[in-house]
Amino acid sequence: MMARMARVGWPQRSFNLPVPGVPFPVSMNHSSSRSKMVTTALGMKRVAVWTVPTRQKEDMEVGLQRMASVLTYMENRTDIPYSLPKLDWVAVPGFGPIGMENWGLHMSLESVILTSQNHSGAVDSLLIDEIVAHEVAHNWWGNLVTNIWREEIWLNEGLASYFQAYGAEAAATGDGHAERFYLRVTVPALLVDQESEGFSHQLTRPGQDRGSYCGAIGLPQATLTYLKGAAVVRMLQAYLDQNITARDSFPEEFLSGPQGDGGPFLRGAQTYLKRHSFGSTNTSDFLAAFDNATGSPVTDMMSAWLLNGDYPLVEIMTMGDGGLGVYARQNRFRLSGKLSCSASKARWWIPVRYKLKSSPEFKWAAVPSCGRVKLATLADANDTIAANAGRSGYYRVRYREPLRTRLLADALDTPPGATNAQLTHVDLAAMLDDAFHMSFAGVQHFDAFLNLTEVLGSRMYTSHTPWAIALPHLRAARDLLRRSATSQACGDDLEQYARERLLGPMVREASNPYSGAGRGLGFSVGADEPLDFRLMHQGLLQEAGNFGGVDVISKSLEIFFGDGAASLHPDLQSVVYNLAVASGNSSAYEQVKSRFLEAEDPHEKKRLLLALTYVPDPGRINETLQLAFNDAVPDRDKFLIFEKNDFTYTYGGLLARGGRSIDAAADFFADFLTSLYNSFGDCDVRLWIKGIARALLDDEKSQNFVQAASQGFQPGQLEELTARNSQWVARYGQSTCRWLRSRMS
User: Are 134 and 89 in contact (CB under 8 A)?
Assistant: First the structure.
């Protein structure tokens, strides 16, 4: 071949032989680049970002810095050098996957490695930090050591997703990536894992091929592989490292410090990687390395989490000792509401991290079986307990009375900004999420969720996480109530409650040390706002408009038509575009659509497309949906029209809007189902169909939709979703009306 190339005058290039290892995807590329040398404790490496020649060198700088920082961090924590002398990253316009970890030559969409001073917002920064950290972590978890076959893919993706949070925190210290682990990883995993989806919930299936869903490792299965895998690993790490944990969420040793031994968990991880470098492994190899390195029976502790589907609900109750004894008991949690724990079947070994109000210390206990396990003794009748504190555990918690009432009262009595609160912002977010889903399972009244939302109003949290949990749930409840003939007015009341008691006070009065006034969330972003504050700031302004805030909508229209949006910070450009379209102004919709079709920057193009999904008019909603078949729209962008992601506010398409958007989408899917399957494939379309069904009641409209869209689903699968919503309204519709009247009168 080389001789033939020489004869015809083709240029020749020589390449070093690859490192020893298993077959893995490789690629070649030619484009313009920006690079830097990185010196770590384990040697010097070159990292580079490559892109099309029209992009500015400055657009590559943030991604380049993140790559270098995460590479240094991973070498530091694993005590194993990166295997190659260089690491390149290619930004590919219209790339199919979000990112791909080809050894030595990573590839991704432009928008997850390149930034733009004029167009990159908080959500863009969030995704760049997370995806860069994830793909770089793959050089150890997946490239250096890889799974033996598809049924073990969680060893690659789960571990890379786990170290993603650490790597992002190390690369962007102060941006809160570690504290958002619960929101970004645990919450979406719990959501998927609690439903009967018609596919395996197991992380590993020894001796069997990975069960397919939607023809491949589809999004629900991938959610478990990536996110449940990461959440279960985090739970193991928190328990093993309990004696060195310096922070509520993550051990300080994982974020800084010298290379090498950072505690039992890292010893296990290093043992696994060094023992199996350049080889293939299975779950037994992973667990055996931890058994040997830590001296703990990790295989016995973790087998049920990896080999079983679903997850437990841990009930916390008082009994004995004059009502001061605190006990824990486990049950299997499913949205069907059938809680169960059978001594004849394998149960979870559950590590419970807890803290008494009367003591500053965090303590641990294990719940290994169906029986009740005593955790602690309360100091007195005013004492209480926070279980799964910091939410490192992959399970939900139900507090029995009087503990639930005591926790609520304590949270309401704690002044804003207090640093000694019994419940942290992550604990409150988790209680909100647990309460919401337990109401759909019928095992806890919806009033428990509503009561917890009052804590948001009284404490005025400026953390992104609790708001990102509470507000999508409030919108979902509002929309279900509005669909019911008997509770329709209560949906309007719930919107008023969220607008006047939660969002309005935050927009006007929230502590804001980054603004000149020191208070409020206006249409300007302070120069020093950290990422988590920016996510909260942008999100609450957006939601104030979504819940009918006239002032915010009017201001957005004023800025939009005054052409002031171009000079706004990108975070607030999103708010202005979205709310201008959401106002129903026809001219605003036309201008945003025109700008979208003409935009070249990928961040701006995504922002404008998502703004179109906020339109309230059914005819315009259908016009937006038709963009899915428009050749002028890049194929990758078409997915954004439908994708539902409530956990970053603005990164979600039409199915996250609820209300009339869902009705229009149901009609659109029924009319164009075959075309949608041909264009987007089974997995994504079925996921979107389920997203529509999750927002409908069991009525004539939903029955027509289910009949049209049920192909490929198990019998009764979609009907189960709509029936559950109707049961929820029947259970809690009138009591929610009474709760709202008592608060708003």
Answer: no
Each residue's pLDDT tens digit, 21-33:
555 555 555 555 6
Q: Give the orientation angle of helix 570-582 with respect to helix 602-612, to 10 degrees.
A: 20
Residue 3 CB burial class (10 angstroms; 0-12, 13-18, ≥19): exposed
Residue 247 reports pLDDT greater than 50 = no
DSSP state letters, 695-719: T--SSHHHHHHHHHH-TTSPTTHHH
With CA atoms as reference, report the closest residue to 230 among 285, 160, 158, 301. Answer: 158
What CA–CA distance (Å, rounded) separates 237 from 231? 10
Q: Which residues are within 8 A (CB) of 106 and not within 5 positions of it... i.e. 6 or more apart? A: 87, 88, 89, 90, 99, 100, 135, 136
H or E segment at 281?
Answer: strand 279-281
- In the block, tokens 């993706």 appear at 157
Task: State the residue range of the domain holding 616.
Answer: 460-744
pLDDT over 70 percentage in the chain:
87
Quote helix, strand, coil % in the chain, to nearest 5: 50, 10, 35
**201 and 80 in a common domain:** yes
Q: Which residue, among 635, 605, 645, 613, has the nearest Cα to 219 in the 3D structure? A: 645
- Are residue 263 and residue 385 in the same domain, yes or no? no
Q: How many Cα neighbours within 13 Å face the side chain of 376? A: 22
Q: Are strands 350-356 and 385-387 parallel, antiparallel or unpaired?
A: antiparallel
DSSP state of 407: H
Q: Answer yes or no: do 237 and 289 share one domain.
A: yes
